Amino acid sequence: MLAAAGCGYTTRANQLPSHISTIYIAPLTNATDQPNIESNLRAELTAVFQNDGNLRVVNAESEADSVLRGSVSGYDRQAVRYQDDESVQEYRLVISLDFEFLDMGTQKALVRENKFSGDTSFFLTGSKATSESIARDNTLKDLSRRVLNRIVTLW
């Protein structure tokens, strides 16, 4: 019974080598027509990694055990629901990132992904209406959480 009580869920996974405890999130590049999206994503990634606590975020690559580098590669707004008059009622926003997560000790990529994406849906009208700007922020948060999970967990 005592052994069962000690069992619990943790996001600390065995995927990360034991010598990796810090991460530097390098400035991202932007291959889209969306201004400053790379800066917004980097800020969100920093916040997500800091809140998670599996890797301590450092301010210089020279201080880091690992580095996250990437490029915002896609920004796609897709119509998913129409009103009777054929006007768009709901959109799905997808933001994609090409990234690599490097072990600075071995100089090898532990994770490399292309077109890794986050998404959200948003309505233009009705009680659930929101702006594309808010949807963009929500999508960046979703993408950041997915990047974190891809790096620190087994799935």
* Helix content range: 25-40%
Distance between the termini: 29 Å
Total strands: 6
Shape: elongated
Short description:
By secondary structure, the chain is α/β, with parallel strands linked by helices. Helices cover 26% and strands 37% of the residues. The chain has a single domain, classed as Lipoprotein like domain (Double Stranded RNA Binding Domain), CATH 3.30.160.150.
Produce the secondary structure layout.
Blueprint: H1 2-5, E1 22-25, E2 29-30, H2 37-52, E3 56-57, E4 66-82, E5 88-103, E6 108-123, H3 132-152
Parallel strand pairs: 1-3, 1-4, 2-4
Antiparallel strand pairs: 4-5, 5-6
Helix pairs in contact: 2-3
What does this structure look like?
With 155 residues, the chain is of the alpha/beta class. Strands 1, 2, 3, 4, 5 and 6 form a six-stranded mixed beta sheet that branches. Strand 4 and strand 5 form a beta hairpin. Helix 2 crosses helix 3. The longest helix is centred in the last third of the chain and has 21 residues.
Which key phrases capture this entry?
single chain, 155 residues, alpha/beta, 3 helices, disordered N terminus
